[in-house]
Amino acid sequence: MPAGVEIVIEDGFATVTPDSTQRGHVLRALLAAVDHPSLIRTDTSGTRRSYVVLEQDAREAGLLDEKPVPVKSAQTKKPPAKKAAPAKTADQPELTQPPTE
Predict the structure, then answer these.
(1) Which of 15, 34, 59, 83 has the fewest Cβ atoms surrounding its Cβ within 10 A?
(2) Cα gap 89→28, rounded to integer Å
(3) Residue pair 16/4 in contact by the 8 Å Cβ criterion
(4) Using CA atoms, how far apart are residues 98 and 101, in angstroms rounded to an integer?
(5) Where do the H-state alpha helices sit in 3-88?
(6) CA distance 28 to 62
(7) Overall average pLDDT of the 83-98 stretch
(8) How many whole angstroms separate alpha carbon 53 and alpha carbon 56?
(9) Of 37, 66, 42, 62, which Cα lies nearest the Cα of 52?
(10) Segment holding 64, helix H or strand E
């Protein structure tokens, strides 16, 4: 992420808020990354102008750091599964009612 640029990612969208000194550079990079300029929404609700674009467009513009590739740690072996209860056989009566005296 370039210095002087604040980026918030939410639900697949990136809200890019550059300092006034970086605004031209950021807008130029975003325009080069999107297919059509109307894909950049300008947000003037805060104290500084922000641009809202898709996260992938902000990444393509070079405004986001690359996603870190997850490193697989040494494979840990799962503990063996518990053995199932022994199957009922014909010589084992099935208890449906409590024994009577």
Answers:
(1) 83
(2) 77
(3) no
(4) 10
(5) 23-33, 55-60
(6) 11
(7) 65
(8) 8
(9) 42
(10) none
Report CA torsion sign: 50, 21, 56, 70.
negative
Output the six-digit token pair for 63: 């405004």
CB 55 within 8 A of CB 39: no
Q: What is the distance, to the nearest Å, from the Cα of residue 46 to the centroid of all Cα atoms in its chain? A: 26
| Cβ contact 58:14 at 8 Å | yes
Cα separation values, 8 from 5, 50, 88, Å = 10, 10, 61
84: buried, middle or exposed (CB in 10 Å: 19+, 13-18, 0-12)? exposed
pLDDT tens for 3-41 read: 778 888 888 888 888 888 888 888 888 888 888 777 788
Give the type of residue at 18.
P
